[in-house]
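[audit] Reproducing an earlier prediction to check determinism. Same input, same settings, fresh worker. If the tokens differ from the archived copy the diff job will pick it up downstream; this log only records the rerun itself.
[audit] input (289 residues):
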Amino acid sequence: MYLKGLTLPDKNRIVSIGGSVEGALKGEYSVDVKAVLTEAWQNTLESRMSINLALFGVLFFGMIVSYIASNFFGGIDLVFEEAQTQDSQALQIINIVVTIAVWPFMAGIEMMGVYHAINKPTQSKMIFSFLHRGSWVALCALLTSLLISVGVQFLVIPGVILAVLLSLTVPLVVEKKMTPVQSIALSVKALRHKVFPLMAIYSTLFMSLVILVFPIILLIESSLAPIGVIIFLIGLSYLAPWYYNVKGILYRDIFGVFVDENSIANDSVNSSPSNKNAGHNGSDDTFSA
């Protein structure tokens, strides 16, 4: 991790931690699979609670939105029955509504991973910190979902590759203040240079999820099924933060993160052994860029 790119406002000095947009477009960055996964895991062990609480809140909100939206189509049971017998437009509309409603809050969770990558503390209330970019984030989520769905329908592999190439679009919309089209174009142009190590990272996370599902599959028809569910939930409480911390590190290393140099100095003081716990009780909900 290195500092570069300086601008000098009246009081605050802005620096970029990690990579840069210019370097990313040229492929001038490296992706060390083991190093990324290891650093992200360490960040997960230190600060997974904020992401888990935020995910729980967003999931609960998404369930409420799904329930309300499904009532306009006769109830959630009828919607799923139609989906099993035919191509249900109702389910597609509900998915769009949930995406629009949920993703402005999911942007905060994405940014938690970025914050952890630059050693900044987070709190679950960060899901409300980037709502001013909510409309762009929702549109970006819709466009990326559409592109990935088209890729999966033609052939599975193009869809998977697109999912990898578009995985960092939301932080670009929030932190770099790009439009959805700009973030999609930049993400594809930049990430195509290292698509194989990126796929290795995401494949590791996916295989971890598959391993967590195994106990449920093995115990589903036995009296020990609740144990399988408990194992899955405990594992997921580590896997989900690990996923977002991985994305945060990748974003930092590829595109860089603009921060106030004074905040770096303050974080260095707070991360000392005597102040480490106190530093993680606070939250800095806005970037200085």
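[audit] rerun output stored. Observation attached for the diff report: The chain has twelve helices and three strands.
[audit] end
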